[in-house]
Amino acid sequence: MEPDRQTEPLANNQQLLGAVKARATDLHPQLLAWRHHLHENPELSFEEHQTVAFVASELNKMGLVPTPVANTGLVVLIEGRNKDKQTVALRADMDALPITEANDVPYKSKNIGVMHACGHDVHTTSLLGAATILHGLRDQFEGTIKLLFQPGEERTPGGASMMIRDGALQSPAPASIVGQHVMPLLPVGKVGFRSGMYMASADELYVTVHGKGGHGAMPEQFIDPVLMASHMVVALQQVVSRMANPRIPSVLSFGKVIANGATNVIPNSVYLEGTFRTMDEPWRAEALVKMKKLAEGLVESMGGRCDFDIHHGYPYLMNDPDLTARMRSWATEYMGADNVVDLDLWMAAEDFAYYAQEIPGCFYRLGTRNEAKGIVSGVHTPTFDIDEDALPTGAGLIAWLALQELRLS
Q1: Active-site annotation holds for 153
Q2: CATH top-level class for 203-311?
Q3: pLDDT, tens digit (0-9, with 9 covering 90-100), for 110-150
Q4: Residue 249 phi, psi (nearest 5)
Q5: What is residue 409's predicted lDDT score, i.e. its pLDDT?
Q6: Domain segments of the chain: what residues?
Q7: Against a cut of 0.85, is the pTM above it?
Q8: Distance from C-alpha of 176 to C-alpha of 169, rounded to nearest angstrom
Q9: Which among 48, 58, 93, 95 is annotated as catalytic?
């Protein structure tokens, strides 16, 4: 599947734009085939062995030579003229989620209990499509485009951190990096950008409140961990409502509380799990210290003991303002002004943030919603799907953005 090679120089940027759009449109059947194969064969984080073998095979068919990295990741270079001039990186994640698919579609997951419910099959398909387009146009640009096919975005420590650890941002070192993600809130045919702070850090809290259990009719003889845990959950909200700068988004939520007592039984302990998210790294560190100190002190004051364990997750995602402004402008050229929208803050987390800490990054959204077709489910749900008319946009736009960034250098 060696792509058609455009060896004759294109006269101007508008001709290049036309060539990218035409190639993306022509790729639609291949994009569907790739996406369906990936969707049918999902693999969990850091277990993407068949997925990475498939991606490597498809890249080889194009005449590209990927390099393994981070166990189940790949890096591949597409070198234009004067390959050492500048490098830009494009990233796609490849892992799926532990969800049983409820969609009745021909490409339904064959791996029961595992599903591409966050659109990473779309991201991987888009980057394969971009590889085809860019490799075919390699005589039309100067510099190098580095493609990162990344494992394990859905699970800490995050595949991005492992890709960086293993040298994915070296030899050659990209000057910037671009990533895209499906957005089922955004109609198909549209894309969204946000400059500056965009997505939150995400830390996990695992808390055990120890007391002394016994008969619920004689609470004076015991130390009630349910009462202590209840006070603790309420008190911890003060960290967000009274200690945080109101200009810094912060969220503290507890989603699991297990007491395992009974109507007349006070348990010995209560177990809780929660998440803390924010968009400021100094405040993030300070808030976690305050939470631990407050929880342990409050429980101790009530006669109990508290184990407050913090599992540090991804940092907050900052889109480089200059790079994002350029990307939004070029997306407007490609899509039209009416199809490029501004995004609001998003309190979910994304390990693309690790790349954006190292080099200027831009993480944007690809619209996949189509209410007329009933494609409205959110990510991380058993009925998530996309309008596959988004696939040529996913492949063509990210290829165009890379070409424009290199043209500017």
Answers
A1: yes
A2: alpha beta
A3: 999 999 999 999 999 999 999 999 999 999 999 999 999 99
A4: -60, 135
A5: 64
A6: 13-199+316-408, 203-311
A7: yes
A8: 10
A9: 95
